[in-house]
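Appendix B, Record 12. Input sequence as logged:
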Amino acid sequence: MDDLFGSALLDYQQGGYSEDITIYSSLDEEDELSVPYLFRNFDGMPKLEQKALSLCKGKVLDIGAGAGSHSLFLQKKGYDVTALDYSKGAVNTCMLRGIKNTVHADIYHFENEKFDTLLLLMNGIGIVGEMNKLGVFFQRMKSLLNHDGQILLDSSDIIYMFEKDDDGGYWVPDTGAYYGEVEFYMEYRNQKSNPFKWLYIDYRTLQFEARANGLNCELVQHGEHYDYLARLWPS
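Logged structural output:
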């Protein structure tokens, strides 16, 4: 599988930064993902991420660690943290940045360890891709938690991206799928990635699905634009 994301991270880490990643979505949106932003320090992080890091406890698994900014902060604070990513380039970047514990793996095939905190930031739950895969995902998360463990994640309700109708509601096309299921592909240095599914989930739906899978769910904090931080733990 392509790893344009990892290539961009490695280029930046090794002094070869020349452009950002262009992202195209099924919502007919085109956006730029700033590569330097992925290397931000604590002061450069959104308040939701800062809050999540302040709530971490014990042994931490940073799922979808990317360039490792969250892991690096926690490691410097003395936490036993492992940076996990499916991107080989991302994992290599984490190693080059000095993160001691790294894992190149799909979260569904990472075995034999348990953690006190599972961290999924920058809409980390997006890796689920589709609503009908949430049950399997939550069961997997529970299998990675120690007794009294927790999951910290942020996401966004992207309903604001749809047009409002005359009575103030939103007009969402009837595709049969949840409106937060989005398909993306990336472009970097004139190469395009394979398309991939990414899930944005509103808090009420997250809470309902979590409870259906034996997890308590609480809203920790609202962000500045339809985003939020949630904490989940086994019921």
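The two ends are 37 Å apart (CA to CA).
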